[in-house]
Amino acid sequence: MLRGKKDFKLEIIIISFLTGLILLIFTGCSGISYIPGASFGYFIWEEDGGISVEWSAERKDVAFEGTISTDGEISSYRLKEWEEDSDVINAGKEKISFSTTLGSEDYSDGFSFTPINYTYLEFNLRINGEHELSRINLGGFLENPEDNVFRVGENYFIEVEMKPWYQKRPFREFFHKLFSNKYFTFLYLFLMGVVIIEILRVTVIARRKRKLMWIGISYTALFVIEACIYFILRFLVR
Amino acid sequence: MRARLFFKKLGNFIVTEEIFEDKKSLRSLYKYFLAGLLIRLILLPFFYQRDLLSTYQRAAETVFAGNMGADIQQMLTNIIHSAYLFIIKSIVPAINELAPILLEKDTWISWLSFNSSYNVFTALALFKIPYLIFDIVCMFLIMRLSFDGEPGNKLRVFKLWAFNPIVIFVLYIFARHDIIGILATLVALLLAKKDRKYWAIAVLSFGIALRFFPIMILPILILYLARTKKDYVLLSAIGVSGLAVMELTSHFYFGRSVIFSLLNTQHFDYILSSKLELIIHDRIFIFVVAYILIILSFIHIRKKSFDLLLNYGAIIYLAYVSLCYFHPQYMLWVVPFLVIIFVRRKSLLYYHWIQFALLMVILIYWGDLVTKFVFAPIDHKFFVYLTSIIPFIERFYNAAKFVNIFRSIFTGVSLWMIYLIYQDNKKLAGNESIGNRPEES
Q: What ipTM describes this predicted complex?
């Protein structure tokens, strides 16, 4: 019986590991996680001093085109999954321009380049001729630019990477809504707290002496937790 | 002394006499109730499916714009939502602030604006509170349907409803209003159990006017309750009176037929969705055949006990979800019948959990609206741009085939459940002592 349980745990660990491995293979072990042929948009990240620019569509004909320029120099570039003859890339010392089309069999394309001695990179990226800023992920999922033609500084990608989890989506928006709607949030938490204390009262506290004291402690703890949540939320949305 | 008597009567009224008199059962019931309530509260403000917003948008049309015919197909449901919206808008300023969003005609803009509003959680919690109330009433009503004198089994029925995954999913994640019609159906069944035949059919008729689904059990309820030819005529007339009143009201007030409008919706076509094509124009609608077989087999049972009636209710709704195209919330209609059968046949409970797991895959049918968009109140932009499930599956395998494999397994499991219930029927028919209807004197 004990051995059976151990085997079961081992199976769970192996399955979890394999699932993680498959996800890593399909999403790339670094950079932004995306699924070629299922995710839609541009995915741009920095890795070992090089900048990777990749794009993917949901297995339908979509044109991706754009230019990347810099005030420094592009020392080298490398294509990734560049299959179609009609896909074009022109790489100069200060500028790369490209024009490709993805389709039902072409899940994703991309390239990486190494810029040197630069202070900024300027991007002008289009999908089917339009600037779809929400589909341009810069260093992280939904880290979108604000302008059609946008610049990122030398340290931009490091800054994005350094962002704590609570300042990333969806947590940022979730905490913001909870904090901006304080009266609801604290009434809601209070009601849940009351239900939890009631569950404790009829289970754990019912078996103890000095029941009233324990109920008093529970409600005090609830108020302390509410106050803590207020300060935590204030910190998270600052 | 009077106060004590009052609370005793109140306790008996709410939790039944058997449970109220047994302190251990009463404590267990309270524990289950609290745990069930906690799960519901956790989910209350964060998730919904687009239809909830549409329901309240139609109610807003009535409340803010005075349009009484905003939803003639579900007139009573709209009246209930409108009355509730009128009350909460008078009490909670956040709801008044949402009025322009609720009145917005463009479905995409209203959905985005609603999800991005800072008080979306307040609105969602308030919008779902009526469903929570109806659900709690159902929770306490359902244990009265069976197992008289068996507090342990009554308690199990209560527990099975309180923690039922379909109930929790449909009401608190999906947020659909089917529970209103289900409450009416449960009241009708309870009245039928107490042999109040006219009241039972009248309440069911009201339920039909609310949500149309109870019409499927109307024939078996009439067959169970009727004793004379006059009963058959009267009960049938009362049974369709709810729809008749709706038809007359919509005809005179709005100049439109509600019945023909319902018959011409794609929802009615769902019933006819599975068919055998014969030749030229000749085809057989499989659910209609199955339904007739179920009704005929009920007619041929000599001793129709109340538990048998409940079993047939489960069979009818299981046959519906097995053989017809259905929306996830329609699964809720089978739950009140199943939770009672689970107590007698525990194996059915495991199949029910399999049904729920399969339903989560079948959901993919309906795309983003019922999958990732359900989480949109948390951060609509994140869930709009998150990779959808269908393209993800399409990347590896044909999504329609993938879902239909699970759909077929779902049908197989549901048909097997019908078979197990049919076996239970035989057992019940052999045991005359269980829940036989009182004979007319």
A: 0.89
